[in-house]
Structure formats: structure tokens, C-alpha cells
Amino acid sequence: MSRRDAGMATAEVAGAPLVVALHGGGYHRGYFDVPGHSLLELGAAAGFRVFTPDRPGYGASDPLPGGEATFARQAEALDATIGALWTEHGEGRPGVVLLGHSIGGAIAVHLAARQPRWPLLGLSIHGVGDRSPAHVTDAWHALPAGAPVELPPEQRRALLYGPEGTVDAEAVAAAKAAVEPVPLAEMLEIVGKWPEEVARLAAAVTVPVQYTLAEYDGLWVVDESRVAAFTGYFEAAPWVDARLQAGAGHNLDHHRLSRALHLRQLAFAAECAARG
Q1: How many beta carbons lie within 10 A of that of residue 266, not counting itself?
Q2: Per CATH, the architecture of 18-275 is what?
Q3: What does the pLDDT profile of the chain (276 residues) look like in tens digits?
Q4: Residue ranges of the domains in the chain?
Q5: What's the rounded Cα separation, in Å, for the pair 221 and 245?
Q6: Do residues 198 and 106 make contact, with C-beta atoms less than 8 angstroms apart?
Q7: What's the half-sphere exposure (Cβ side, CA atoms, 13 Å) at 16?
Q8: Would you say the pTM of this structure is higher than 0.70?
């Protein structure tokens, strides 16, 4: 699997960890680099080195052999990718903080549960839950088998973004440059197998966890009880920072609150590194 990096900090903060961010379904790594909402630019300005590898089969990344890109197999491949990043860029650093959005968040949990050999310091996930609305699950199961799926613009806007006032039309338009078709198997796993195994996987995570679920996330059941239930699965984590984020939708990284999210994620990374 090929890999690319971005967000090279020009004045890195001493003791800063590597930050690796995994994109969700239907977007390549450019999801984190939308103009005006770029995690890469903000991370570099704050002195962090941020890497955003394409997941298997997206962007510059090769598909997995046999085409079976389950979350577990993607985690295995990304484990090796991040290990290579650590070997090349980890000298003098305390470890890696892993970020994941949506399906990338589910795969990040898989990855953390693997207890990787490279030093994982913390896990920050957003846009992923444990229970999807029935209409979303039914819609995914009704899609024709075989071909990757690209949501129509109006459906993408309704499911992935909050109402007017939470996101600018320019950001939604700019994010289209990162859109790619999503394998149907990913969509079915996130509403099927993932909810059945998240508690088991999360229980194996032994690093601090940051969790954010947006108020207007159209892909998950959203309320305080779901946030509490989800974070409760991380019973072995030293500490958990959880938030139900008002005023944003699923693609929180592109909303008007994106800077606040990214600053919290970078602060979490710095705290994980400091507390070790």
C-alpha cells in the first residue's frame, strides 16, 4: 500500500507526537485538507507533524489483495503503514496519536485494539457511533450489490452536514474534491458487524480516548445516552474525554466548528504525549 504525507510542521514543538488521521468512507485523504478547514495546515502551524494516509483502495493507496477490505484487514494494513511512518519520522518523539473519522474511526478502534508495536499514545475518534437509524440501515441494505456507491449530492448534504448556519456552502463544495465512491461492503459493515463488535474491540483499547459525536449526524442515533454508552465500552482506557458536539453534522471537519474540533484534537494529542 502506498502512502503520502502532508502537513509538515515548519517549527515543530519539542515532544510533540506524530498525529495520524484516518478518513472515512467516500473520501480520500483530502477530507482533512479542505481549504479553510484543514487539519493539516492547523497542525503544522501548531507545531505538529500530521500524516493522513489513504486507506486501502482510496486515493493513492492500492486495494487489499483479494479485494476483501474488511475493517480488520484494513487495520492490519494500516498498522504496517503507520509502523513505517514511525520508523521514518519517530526519532525523538514520544509516540503516535491516532485520529479517525466515521469508518476511519471504526478502523482506528480496530487498530488500537491490536496493541500495535509502535507506541500508540491516544485515540481520538469522531463521526462514529454504535447504533444507526433504521432508515439508514435499510437504505444501505437496499443498494445493489457489487458496485461502489457515490451518494447523490442532495443525499450527501442531508446526511453528512448540519443545517444552514452550521456549515458554509463553500466548504461543502470544496470538500467534493476529496469525494470517492465508497465500497458497499464498508457501508454494510459499519451498520452491521461494527455495532456487534465495538464493545469487545473498545475493551481492548488501553490508551486515552477522545470521542465526539455531532448533534446533526445523520448516520447515527445521537443523544447523550448513546455518547455515554459508546464511551463506556472503553473500560480499559486510562481516561476518556467525550462530547456531544452541538451545532455540527457528521462531517464535522468541514463545519464552522472545525477549527474548534481540530484544536481540541491537537490539545488531546499534546496531553497524551505529556502524560505518557
Answers
A1: 24
A2: 3-Layer(aba) Sandwich (3.40)
A3: 333 344 444 567 888 999 999 999 999 999 999 999 999 999 999 999 999 999 999 999 999 987 788 999 999 999 999 999 999 999 999 999 999 999 999 999 999 999 999 999 999 999 999 999 999 999 999 999 988 999 999 999 999 999 999 999 999 999 999 999 999 999 999 999 999 999 999 999 999 999 999 999 999 999 999 999 999 999 999 999 999 999 999 999 999 999 999 999 999 999 999 998
A4: 18-275
A5: 13
A6: yes
A7: 22
A8: yes
